[in-house]
Amino acid sequence: MKKKLIAFSVIAALLISMLSMSSVFAAEEPVWIWRPAEDGYVTDDGMGTGEDAEDGSYTTFTTVEGTVEGYFYPGSAGGNLTAGGMDPIDTIATIALVKYRTTVPSSVNAQFAWHNGSAHDFKSFRYTGDGEWHFAIADLTTDTDSGAGPWTDAASINWFRFDFANNIAADQTYSVDVAYIALFESEEDAQAYAEADGGAVVPAPGEDEDQDGDGSGGTEEPAPPQTGDVSVIVAVAAAALVLTMLLKKKLAA
């Protein structure tokens, strides 16, 4: 009877460990995603140029000299996702994840722009312009630039634009490589997706964005461990305890 109980304890501990590991590594799929090289993009005259990478993994957006910003609309119709072959964005997805690469100076920032059916609103974030791939995570419900058309005031967003370069010098051109923009219900989901995708620097959990792009940055306080991480620790400790008991029993026999 005791041997059966010990065997059951070992199996239970291993199952807990496996389930916990899956909770850490499983990445939630985005509610909405735009891959410009695959889904297409359009812009107003003179507000930017786009060139897809040969392997189709990203698009290089470049500003036009003499303009004050550069932007693109997802899909094939400016300002209308459904007309452009894209799905409208369900506003339960409040967290935006951008995979990008650029060498723009810290004075240049990026901005999401949308119309919720009654008014426009905007959300800015800053780049890390070191020429390496990075992820940016932004909450579209907090610290918006106008506050006139809140993201969650509508069930879905059909007018959506990405301003890849703002606050630019009129006599300069700037380029940003964009792999995708994805929308999630939580920062944890966006974080997990970025970590699973890899190939770019992932911001620390809970790291605030510098909304004005002035280089002031965000909090440096470490975030608490995620639930999945704690479960793994507990499961491994439980399995180790059971194995220790088995080893002691064998040695005492």
TrEMBL record:
Residues 195-227 are annotated as: Disordered. Residues 1-26 form the signal peptide. Keywords: Signal. This is Uncharacterized protein. It comes from Candidatus Egerieisoma faecipullorum. The lineage of its organism: Bacteria, Bacillati, Bacillota, Clostridia, Eubacteriales.
